[in-house]
Specification:
Elements lengths: L1 H6 L4 E4 L2 E2 L2 E2 L2 H15 L9 E5 L7 E5 L1 H4 L9 E5 L5 H11 L4 H4 L15
């Protein structure tokens, strides 16, 4: 589903499993997704910017965005965590990921599917 959504320019929210009262971490989720990518010989995640949201709507939330190879090594603290795989980014989404989630500045310059540089995306 992630690959198909990326091809269509859509964002994907990955909700992580809770089993026997234990929450899957974003690190574990990223590892699983990278393994699936490798097994299928597809390139849908490893070169993409990914965002991790930890403890959304709590007093101490965390949002961090970067490449999976970098995020998999980070400590996001206590779960619950979820993963967002962005599709085509509007220029304001790219700026928000950089400013609010620490995404690399290169996502503004390189072709990451970013729409426009100040114009409204009319492809909806």
């Amino acid at each position: 589903m992630i690959k198909e959504n990326k091809e269509r320019g859509l964002h994907t929210l990955v909700l992580l499993d809770i089993e026997d009262g234990k929450c899957m971490t974003a690190n574990e989720g990223i590892e699983v997704l990278l393994e699936i990518e490798k097994e299928r010989e597809e390139n849908f995640l490893s070169k993409s910017i990914v965002a991790v949201v930890a403890r959304a709507s709590s007093p101490n939330p965390l949002v961090m965005a970067n490449y999976p190879s970098i995020l998999v090594k980070k400590d996001f603290g206590e779960p619950p965590h979820c993963i967002v795989v962005p599709g085509k980014l509007h220029f304001m989404e790219a700026k928000a990921l950089i400013m609010l989630a620490g995404a690399p500045k290169e996502i503004e310059k390189e072709d990451y599917g970013i729409t426009g540089s100040g114009s409204v995306h009319s492809g909806l």
